[in-house]
Amino acid sequence: MVKQLMNTTLKKPGDKEKTAVLRLEMDYELATLFEAIEENNDKKMKDCKHKLEKIRQELIRLKAL
């Protein structure tokens, strides 16, 4: 509990907004990935997975995951 409290107080002011934007981007990419799977589109799946990995890394950097 104390660690979580410390993490929230140490975050920069813009991090909360950036985290929200990244989560929206993640939701969009997941929906796009779902469509690619339904279409059996390997290139689109690969692109989505790559974008999702970048989003994941940024969220980890912001300590939002």
UniProtKB/TrEMBL annotation:
It comes from the Bacteria. This is Uncharacterized protein.
